[in-house]
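A reminder before we start the practical. When you read a complex entry, don't treat the lines as separate problems. The point of joint prediction is that each chain is placed relative to the others, so the output describes one connected object in space. Small molecules and nucleic acid strands, if listed, are placed in the same frame. In the example below there are two entries. Take a minute to note the order of the lines before looking further.
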Amino acid sequence: MALIKLNSVKKIYQDGEISVKALRGVDLEIVEGEFATVYGPSGSGKTTLLNLIGALDKPTSGKVQLNGSSIGDLNKNELALLRRNNIGFIFQSYNLIPVLTAYENVEFALKIAEDSKKSENREKSIKILDQVGLGDMLSRRPNELSGGQKQRVAIARALVKEPRLVLADEPTANLDSETSRGVLELMLRMNQELNTTFIFSTHDPMVMDYASRLLEIRDGSISREERR
Amino acid sequence: MAVYQEKKGDKFMYLMKIAFRNLFRRKSRTLIIAGLLALAIFFALSFDSFMGGMMDLSFSNIIDFESAHMEVGSDTFFEDGEPDLDNVFYLSDDILKEIEGLSGYVASTPVIDFSANLIAGREEYPTVVRAVEPDSFERVFKYHEYIVEGEFINEGQSGLVIGQSLAELLEIGVGDYYTLLFQDRDNSFNTLQGEVTGIVFTPNPDMNLGKVIVDKSYAASSLGVDIDESSHIMARFENRDIAAEQSSILSERLADSGFAARSWREFSDTMVAMEAWGDLEIQFIMGLILLVGAIGIVNLVVLSALERVEEIGMMKAMGLKESEIVKVFLVESAGVGVAGGLVGLIFGSIATALMNNFGVDLQALYGDATLEMGVPIIGRVYGTWNLDSYILFFLFGLFVAVGASLIPSYWAARKNPVDAIYHR
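Here is the predicted structure of the whole assembly.
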């Protein structure tokens, strides 16, 4: 059974009298455990697609199903719980909480999602930050971190709760190639060990190299697909 | 995917932590808004303390020099409202027993009030004369403590006690002769004559100018009344509250007897009106707190929300519900309310302590306007501590802070996550 299923999904943004067709009838199925990459030029609809899959937005028409549930049928609270317990987001702009330290930003994701013991939360948070190379920067606040370091905190935050689905918008945009490789290896390991589904939106060829499925999107439609 | 079942997390403390730290994020903004709230609470408390002190002193001055705690007289005495010998009566043992049997009773004294012109040399001045029994009068009133020259009158003597302001006006002093010209019970003109024995300067300005005191046994025959007759009985109780309560009990018991009891509170209608006016002012100040606090808090939440729009979007993406994001803003606002409230209480306490120790000179503040307003106070007003006001103003400030942030908090939390994350 597909984890994600999109049927004739259209998304139109209305800005005054101007309509922007971001997606023009996308059909897509992604099964659990895929390591997929969506690529395409800027403005082609990559981010919109990720937002719909992540239940952050609802389609103008068509149906988006996550594990059989149509997001159009869920209310705001149900959508929040769906995201809380199942989806990890990585955004290009990090969106860390500035008043929390790197460690607290990561642990916060666990506190929201799980009823786990304090000691486990701490252990998990430190471990994931260590894995992204920030083990010695736990107590730094976002304003004390570089762009790349912030991006890695955002990645650690998305991965720490071991969600079923991770949606990453340009996750390596601010990372050097060595760090990018390290982070992608970590994600691949999670994918293989925990069967976590990853969907990336990227221009980075390295990310595409890691992907088991490539989806090219142009003018709001999936124009090409490749499985490896 | 688990959609419908919420996993309970230890997130509340984290939300509180975020809210608390956000207070320090824009320190100057938080300080200004908390400061405004503190200022409003400070003014409210200071005013409340001042008004409390003024009312307390006013009532004390009325009780100690004018009305005592309770007056008992004929129905017509209270209806007329003017000192009039037509209303004198023999005090029956039954009524006296009723008065003495009241809870908290301390002492009572019979008096006769009548109008007269005080003549000293060429000067003549209309005044109210209070004919009293010196011994019992001393147990009910406090004139004896405020004699500035000479001594209080003695029973059976022709002496007169006069207020310092009136003495200065008439240029009369201890040992000088006086004449009181009045109409007796039969409406014939009659006089009382003698020497001034004492000059008083009480904290109640009305008493210093408007009334003189003579011995009742000396005055009775000239007035055409019997020595056992009185225009009213004045009683002192252990405290004001008991007096007011016992006065209404006695009034009920005296119903249909032709007599009535009136408490100090009913006598002090001007002050009671002023007290109500003070309450109105307190309400006005509370309204001001509401306005200042509400504008400040709405401004704080809206600016914070605009600043943190991407964070709000991320929190929603992470799965926080709108109600949980609202909590963060509400706790922040409550933090401002608590900080402003506490600072206001501290400065309000300092102001009250200063007023309590040093007092405020009413005449220096308002000049003779206090006398024109009918405030029976000379000298300094001392602040009062009112715990209820502290609790009320603190909670009110907190309520305003949290209440005013509700709508902007929901406005912030309801932002579409995609628009928020990408700051559209």
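Discuss with your neighbour: The interface with chain A takes residues 1-11, 13-14, 17-18, 21-22, 24-25, 310-311, 313-322, 416-418, 421-422 of chain B (CB under 8 Å). What might explain this?
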